[in-house]
Amino acid sequence: MLRKQELRSAETRRDILSAAGALFAKRGFDAVTMREIAGKAGCSHTTIYIHFKDKEALLHALSMPSLQELKQRMESILLHHDLSPEERLKGISREFIHFCLQNRTMYTIFFEAKSVRVDEERPALPINQLRNGLFRLLQQALQDCLDRQRGDLLLTSARIFFFTIHGIVGTYTYSEETPEALMDRLSSTFDEAVDVLLLGFRQQTVLRQQTIQGGTIL
User: Fold this and answer.
1) CA–CA gap between residue 134 and residue 10 (Å, rounded)
2) Model confidence over 63-106: pLDDT tens digits?
């Protein structure tokens, strides 16, 4: 059995994480100080550093478990090779959107606090390694649909796709509908958005090939 001191320590850690999550969601990651978090958690400024060395450690403790679970669910969908590439892309897109809607109060913290470029290959922070891993899963699913080799064109298409998904989430950040109600009402619209984007990307490829061929002829 856990001793009273261990139980008290675990409870203090939970209180700190709860306080940090509430303050980050309300005021943003950069605006909040460790002293403010300690005050809201009901512990001393010294005690908070026993559990977390800085705000980045709090960010990781708050975000990493949920983001890792999302990554596993997306990877599971991509392993369903009985589905078409388009169905896999729609599946991981819906999974991503649903996750963000379920975590609306922490959405910006999960994806924006201390973030880096999505194409950065070796980010320093583990959370950015995980975030960019999520982006690469979407990029891989998109590549399977478009049969494109990795390069600037694929990266640009993946960024456009990623921006679109985040735009969808942002539209419903303050909606009073539950995530389940939103997904039930709008899933067909989300799927159609994927179809439209794929159509545009494929047409872009055709136009680029025609331009290249035309330049060669000249």
Assistant:
1) 30
2) 999 999 999 999 999 999 999 999 999 999 999 999 999 999 99
The answer on 205 and 132 residing in a single domain is: yes
Whether this prediction's pTM lies above 0.85 is answered by yes
Ordered DSSP codes for the chain: ---HHHHHHHHHHHHHHHHHHHHHHHH-TTT--HHHHHHHHTS-HHHHHHH-SSHHHHHHHHHHHHHHHHHHHHHHHHT-TTS-HHHHHHHHHHHHHHHHHHTGGGHHHHHTTT---TT-SS-SSHHHHHHHHHHHHHHHHHHHHHTPPSSHHHHHHHHHHHHHHHHHHHHTTT-SS-HHHHHHHHHHHHHHHHHHHHHHHHHHHHHHHHHHHHHHH-
Question: Residue 9 carries which side chain, given as an amino acid letter?
Answer: S
Residues 91 and 42 in one domain: no
Assess whether 68 and 43 both reside in one domain. no
